[in-house]
Amino acid sequence: MTPARTLAGGAARYRQRALVLVLAPCLSGCILTTEAPTGSVVDVPPKYRTASGKPYVALPAPDWWRGFRSRELTSLVERAQLANFDIAAAVARIEQADASTRIAGAPLLPTVNFDGSVTRAGTGTTPGVTTYRAVLNASYELDFWGKNRAALRAAEFNAIASRFDREVIVLSTVSTVINTYFQVLAAQDRLRIARSNVAAATRILGVYQERIAVGTATGLDIAQQQSLVAQQRAAIPPLDQQLRQNMATLALLLGIAPSQLTVRGGSLTSIAPLRPSPGLPSDLILQRPDIREAEVLLAAANANVESARAALLPSFQLTGQGGFVSTALHTLFVPQSAIYSLAASVAQPVFDGFRLLSQLDLQKGRRTELLQLYRKAIISGFTDVERALIAVQDLAEQERLQAEAVATARRAYELSETQLRAGTIDITTVLNTQRTLFTEQDQLVVVQLTRRQAIVSLFQALGGGWVLPEEIANAQGRRALAGATLKGQ
After folding, report:
1. pTM over 0.70
2. Could you confirm whether domain 20-86+161-312+360-478 is CATH 1.20.1600.10?
């Protein structure tokens, strides 16, 4: 073999690899076209930095919200999945995408039209002649270069993307329902605490009123305690507002009017603080619907580039006509009235103001944009999980410490109330212990709410319910096979 031939062969292999990499810049390879083996577009870390223990110890279940052990919450989530307007609109978009797929596949089939007509023509000096026609016209474009097949493939990918879009909306809706329900529970808890604080502050006020009758308290003591009672009462209306507004928000998520929804609620302490396992980052690419949607949109862009490139090549058209034409109706369907014609044509674009080339450049630019969005979706998924893991971990510790702070503040308050009744403590110390206890109790509920919302964020970041490990392993095997195919090019 001559050096020139060796060099030419190497250049051909290089061009082949370059073409494969240009047409297939995707990662998982579960949905992309078979003509496009996949290659890595991001560096996938081996594990999450904040994750501890085995990655598959407690994977999220498909109905993961049941793990919070609230029948009312489960009922609200299931109702939202059936009646939410955003989910219903997403289903309608799936129907539109399916119809668009059928439209895109129509050019792959011949077009047949029936022409049945009666025509009478004549002049002023000759009698009119009536012509009867019953003719079938057929045309078919040979998809020699795969232009129409690529357009159909792009439409099919868009239809798949619409289904992943629905899953994104379902996951977001479920998470919003859960978070809003938690806000309802938190508002109820804070309302109970605020009313209890009003009762406690009023009880202390009664002690001062008893002491002022015997001359052991002053008007200033009474005024300061009355101010604290008024502050605690003023905290109740904003909490009631939050409660009722969150119930109205729940009604919207369920697709009903606020007056039609009744929420019993309860307490955040009845909600089990789950700790799901995150799996591995490589699994997230298969599990998150937004990443899968970005993947299939990129695959659709690949098909659009292929279709735009094929549009630059010659197109082949077959046309045919067959039927009957006669000047008398009773002789219309006799053999002598039969007509037919067949034609074949080829058309090659020569100059169209660079329209087709510009369309190809447009599709290439769109593909590059979707590639970057796909990469961003993957990295954003890793980031969401990492942030949620950090929040869940730190908020669990914060809730524990905040509970200790409440217990300490309660002991201080109880001691101050005992000493107040014994007359051995000043008003400033009593006021401080009251304010500290009231603040720490309210802050504990806020921390409990934030922790449980962080758990919901972790489930959402993981893509909701997890697939089975065997399915993950099979998908990983497909990716490995696709990678091996790429290396063999």
Report:
1. yes
2. yes
